[in-house]
Structure formats: structure tokens, C-alpha cells
Fold:
Amino acid sequence: MRKLVLLIIAGLAVGAFFGHLMMSVPGYWLVRVGDTSVQTSFWFGLVLLFGTFIALHFALRLLTGIIRPMGRFRSWNSRARNRRAMKRTVHGLVALTDGKWKKAEKTLVRAADDSSTPLVNYLSAALAAHYQGNHDKSQQHLNQAQLTTDGADTAIGLMQAQLMIDRQQPEDALAILNRLDKKMTNHPQVLKLLKQVHLSVNDWDGLRRLIPRLAAQKLISPTEREQLEYRAYREMILFEARNPDDIERIRSLWADMPDYLRGNTELIVLYTDALVQADEDAIAERLLNHSLDHHWDARLVTRYGLLNVDANRQLVKAEKWLQERPNDPELLLTCGRLSLRTGKWEKAQEYFEASQRQRPSGVVCAELARLYASLGEHNKSQLYYRQSVEMLAKSLPSLPQPKQPEGTSSATDEVVDAKDSTKSA
Structure:
């Protein structure tokens, strides 16, 4: 009740204020059109103008109400078509996953025009056509995807590259990926596919240059990086070693190699062999000296004894190693070979026999047989030759052999006879 009284008082006050205003501020409106003129008081004209505005406002709202149902219908129809397209897209993707590629392609293409994501439809349809072996149709879908979606070059290019890889066309895939790599440096998927393509075409130099970028983006683990780098440098050294005249290329590879790989025995062996083929024995000797001082390996010791350098200096070095490893069979063999090269026959014989006692070897037997033959001790030479052959025979696979005729002796009997003859001698 109090609010109503206050409202009436406020209304009377406002009415009194406007009544006073109308009395104190006289004026009029004059509107003349041609020979016709209309005149009214200022306040009545103001009320008339305000009423006209209200009337226009309601008229526009009425007109909008008449037009809006058509717009609402179009909007509803568009949403309904989009929902149907999305359902078809889902069905098409399910069919693609289930291996129903023809159905998947047809469904995805039909839904593409009304879909809010036509790129997905056409890329998936391209994949379905590819699985059917229809590569031309697959490319058409990719072209259509390019037309329907702006800024999708990377996604389309990646799909093209993946399809090229699947079709065993790595060179074409590499061209696409290189173009994408220039446009979007260090894109993770581009880098992954580049790694795959480099491996498939045995592009070891390209892989070697790509590995640091893969590691920087954390796309490979430290273990995988080491494996890839080892494989890349190994294959490149093997390839370059086919041309021993271009040893500088191999030396450059060795210089660019990570430090941890320069301690890998397999790579040291390959590099040493390449240096020897190119008559760079002096460099090979320095490499083997350094490697054996830091990491002992039988293969490196064996190659050290085959270098064509100063044998006396090598023998002094090898005998220093022998003080630390007096029972190493490979080192004893190497000392024996170096003794041969320096003309110390008795010392060579002692080293060979010591190596044979530590670990019997067909190679050592052959060295002893050759040495005894040169010294004129043919019975001992024959004995070691037969032992060498016997050791080699033990490493052969077990295969059927013809039966020996009666009255013939086996290789073992001949070895025993040779031993008896040696003892009698």
C-alpha cells in the first residue's frame, strides 16, 4: 500500500512538472509540403512523434515475425542435413576401419557436401580408394579436399606422402616431404615420415643429417638415436670404402662422427680396413695404438699385426702390451707375426706355440706349418697343416659324406701317424 501511495505521488509530481514545462515553454511545429502546411503545438507534435516511433517499432517486429519462420526453417534444414552428414561420415569411417573400402568411399563422398568437416571426408575417401588400388580416384579425392578446405596443404601433403610410401614410391614421397619440410620446419609427422623414407631408400647421409632434428623434437629415444647413428655411419663407411682412392671422404666421415661412435670397435675395424686399402697404414697404426690403449679388443690386436709399417717399432709396442696380458692368444699371435716381419724366426715360433697353448686355433696352426716348412722341418709343418684342416673341418656343418673305401686311412689317422713320425724324428 505504501509503495502504491509513493507511486501515485511520484506520478502527480512528474505530471505537475511537465504541465508547468508546457506552460512555461511555448512553441509549435510547422510542416509544409508544397502548398499544404500543417501546424500544431510543440508538445502535441512531440507526443505525436513519439507515438509514430512506437507504431513503427511494433510494425517492424510484426514483419520480422512473419519473415523469421522461413529463416528458422532454413536453419533447421541446414542443421538436419549436417546431422545426417555427420552420421554418414561416422558410418563411412566405421566401414573404412572394417575394411569395407568401396562402401566407405561411397558413403564418405556422399556426405562430404553437407559435412562441416569435408576435409576429413575426402581424405578418408582417398584412403579408401587407395586400399582398393584405384590410385587415380584417390588423387581426385585429394584434389577435392584441396578445393573444399583452405589451409589444408600440410594435411593433404602428409596423406599423399603416406600413400606414396605405401605404394612403394619412396622417391615421390621424399619430394613431397622435402617440400613440406621447407614450408613447416620441424613438423613432427613430416620428420617421422622423412626418417621412414630415408631408411627405405638407404639414404644414410640424409638420415645422418636428420637424426639431430629428430632428437631435438624428442621423436626418438637416446637408444634409438645411437642405433640409427651407428647404422648410418657404418653403411656410409662401407659404401665409401668401395672406392679406396677417395679416402678423404671416409676421413671426413670419421671426423664428423660423434665421439662415442669413434670408440665403437666395429667402426674402428671398418675405418682401419679402409685406411689400409688406401695405403694409409701409418694413420691406421696411430688409430689402433690409441684405441688399444683405451679399449682392448681382439679384432684390433689382430689387425695391428697386419699393418705395413715399421715392424720393429710395432713389436716393441706389442711386447709392452704383452707384459700386461701375457696369456692373450691374439696378442701372442700378433707378436709372432711381427717377429716374422723382423726376421726373428725362433721368437716367432715361441709366440705362435704359446698362442696355440692358450687357445688352439686353425690360423695359428697354419702360421706354424708355414714357418716350419720354411725352416725345413717338413714333418712338423705337415702335422700343423693337418691340425689346421681338422680344426676347420670341425667348424663345418654336419652333412652326409661318402663312405671311405677299405684300406684307406682317415684324416684323423693321418694326423696320428704324423704325430708318431714327429716323435720318432
